[in-house]
Amino acid sequence: MLLTIAITAALIFLALSGMPIFAVIAATALIGFYLSDIEITVVAIELYRIVDTPMLVALPLFTLAGYLLAESNASHRLVRTAQAAIGWLPGGLGIIALVTCAFFTAFTGASGVTIVAVGALLYPALVKVGFSDKFSLGLVTSSGSLGLLLAPSLPLILYGIVAQQTGLGEPFSIQDLFIAGLLPAALMVVLLSLWAVWQQRDQWHQRQRFTAKELRAALWEARWELPLPFVVFGGIYAGWLAVSETAAVVALYVLIVEVLLYKDITVRALPDVFRKGMIMAGSIILILGVALALTNIIVDAEIPSRLFEFVKQHVDSKYTFLILLNIFLLLLGAVLDIFSALVIMVPLILPLAVGYGIHPVHLGIIFLANMQIGYMTPPVGMNLFIASYRFKKPITELYSASLPFMVILLVALLLITYWPWLSLGFL
Fold first, then answer.
1. In 145-269, which residue ranges form alpha helices assigned H by DSSP?
2. What pLDDT score does 112 carry?
3. Among candidates 81, 68, 67, 80, which has minimal Cα distance to 259?
């Protein structure tokens, strides 16, 4: 017992000291197997098993597409197009910012990339059209994580892979998760958009004039990128392509568009973009592999069933469980990156949720919605620090600026949590 406590304390210390998360998880799994007299070759077997998963091919391909878009001038072209189309509305640029950020986060799977690449473009533009500095900061900070619920979000795919490995609850596909995320994501964007419109309710007379000439010019400039959502949604939702096939088509399409047609990325720069994308994809796969090995230890020790019995003794209501789950996930999202949270916590939380009659797909949407808000939850939400660094603003100012947006997203979270139809209505 004392040895177990000492080992646990040492691993926690190493994690807090900056040791890579995959190394901490792998060490935990190896020590667990050793103490249980189980051959540690199980870890290698789990790594092979996850690599052999067909769905895993989608991760590096979507990651590559996201990095290609982030390195190009796609954000400028898309913002110009949206501005020309709906910039005349009160709060129009706020709506544009929300939709554009959601699009970028869906493809990159990383809020930091969105804030740095797109937020830097939108922040001065929002201030220029009449939004307050505080509102503009809060919008770009909070919208950095919008899109985690939209295809082809990497966290959605990763949740599906991890949850499917457990074999618990009703069976589902990655496509089901993509469909389930549509209405919850739309709800968040709509509520935040209404807030943006309300902020400019007194500036109707100062709105940008609509010109058909500028719209035609913007549409022509972005003509190769505008079909991209239709490629994703049409391929996946129409059932024409599997998720992995869609990922291959999207990656090839983005590569041709940004390198050969727009020439935003030179052939010489491609290896560096590939390297960045594959480092991220490789780290996710490595974490996933060692985490599944750790999951075997957790299952063999009957920790999920014991945890369920403990929770069931103290929480007899499904709705109470859901609100406690939301509080826990919000705190988790504030201190742990989303990929680590998924591979570590889903094997523990999913059995509890299934025991309370919660559909695995609905749980996935709740999980990611909480992680999305956790990115901007004080005091250590990742988006707050990224925005503070990028815009050279005190972190306390970011706390204040993000608070109204966080409240709105929490309202959306409650609706998503207690109205399962939003997630399951189209399945």
1. 154-166, 174-180, 182-199, 212-221, 228-237, 243-255
2. 62
3. 68
